[in-house]
Amino acid sequence: MSDPRTPTADRVGELTDRLAAVRERVAEACRAAGRDPSEVGLLAVTKTIPAADVAALVDLGLDAFAENRAQEAASKVDEVRALRPDVSPDWFFVGGLQRNKVRTVLPWVTRIDSVDSTRLARAIDKEVAKARDAGERGGPLPVLVQYSVDGDADRGGVAPEGLVELTDLVTELPGLELAGLMAVAPLGWEPDAAFERIAEAHRETVGRHPGATVLSAGMSGDLESAIGHGSTVVRVGTALVGDRRIASE
C-alpha cells in the first residue's frame, strides 16, 4: 500500500515538469516586458491538494504557498511542518476571510492578501494585538488590500471608490503593515485592459504609501499580461499542480 504522505514518482515527475514550464513562462514574460525574472515571485496556490504534494514542491525549491480556506490551511500547514520539519515555507491567505476566522489564520500566516473591507482590517488588527500581548507575535502583520477593478462584490475586493479609504486605514492600524495590492482580472474582461487599470491603482497607492510595493496579479491563464503590467507576484494553481479539486469544492 502506498504511503499517503509520499507522492508517487509519477506525481513528483508531473510536478517537476509543471514547475519548469511555469518558471519558463514567467521568464519569457519578463523578457518580453524587459524585466528581470527575479522581480516576479511565484506563489503556489495549493488549495485542495494534499500536504504531500506541497512537501514535494518544497523539495523542488518552492517556498511560498497560498491557501484560501482557513480550516483546511491550518491542518495542511501542520502536516507540511511534520513532513519537512527542517524547512519553513511562507504561507499566504488569498481567499475571502470571515472576521471570525482571523484567529484561526494568525498562527501560521505570513501575509493576508485579501483584505477588502475596513471591518476586516479592524478585525485583523484586533487579533494581532491580542497575539502580541500574548507574546505570539513580535510585530505587525503584512497584508495586501484586495482591489476589485469592476466593483463586483460577489468576487471580493474593495471597489475603486473605496481603495484610498481602505489603504489609508490599513497604514493607520498598528497591527497591520500595508505591503501592496492583490487583484484578479474580472471575468469577461480582456486581460490587458484589466491589468492596466490594476497597475494604475497600484501606482496611485504607492504614491500615497511608498512601502506598498507588492502587486499580486496574474494567475495560470493570464500571468503574461499581468507581468507585462508590472505584477511582482503571480499566483499559480492549476498550471502548477493540475486540476485536483475535491468534490466538496
UniProtKB/TrEMBL annotation:
Residues 19-244 form the Alanine racemase N-terminal domain. Pyridoxal 5'-phosphate (PLP)-binding protein, which is involved in PLP homeostasis. The keyword Transcription regulation does not apply. The modification N6-(pyridoxal phosphate)lysine is found at K47. Gene3D superfamilies: Alanine racemase (3.20.20.10). Keywords: Pyridoxal phosphate. The keyword Nucleus does not apply. It comes from Pseudonocardia alni subsp. carboxydivorans. This is Pyridoxal phosphate homeostasis protein. InterPro entries: Ala_racemase_N, PLP-binding_barrel, PyrdxlP_homeostasis. Belongs to the pyridoxal phosphate-binding protein YggS/PROSC family.
